[in-house]
Amino acid sequence: MIANEYVIMAPQGIHARPATTLIRLTKNFKSTVSLKRGDKTIRLNSMLNILSMTIKGGEIISVIVDGDDEAEAAKAIGLFFTEQLKDL
Predict the structure, then answer these.
(1) Neighbours of 35 (CB within 10 A)
(2) What is the DSSP-derived secondary structure letter of residue 67?
(3) Which fold does the domain 2-87 belong to in CATH?
(4) N or C: which end of the chain has fewer CB within 10 A?
(5) What is the pTM of this model?
(6) What is the pLDDT of residues 16-51, one digit of tens each?
């Protein structure tokens, strides 16, 4: 299991477009990917799950990856949160 924290750098937070991109990304891996903010944890397999978190810019989230390809998945998801999200 790999857990990493990220600050959401996109001022508008995670809305429908980045949520869709994130779901597509996680579907490339066999590992289970979860997102945690505060006391709430969701699986990153549904846009409704992600949007229900109402993640805003500047908030800190944790991403937990668990499975056979967790290192590769954690790296790709890390790039999403540090590089790609701010452009969506």
Answers:
(1) 23
(2) S
(3) Histidine-containing Protein; Chain: A; (3.30.1340)
(4) N
(5) 0.90
(6) 999 999 999 999 999 999 999 999 999 999 999 999
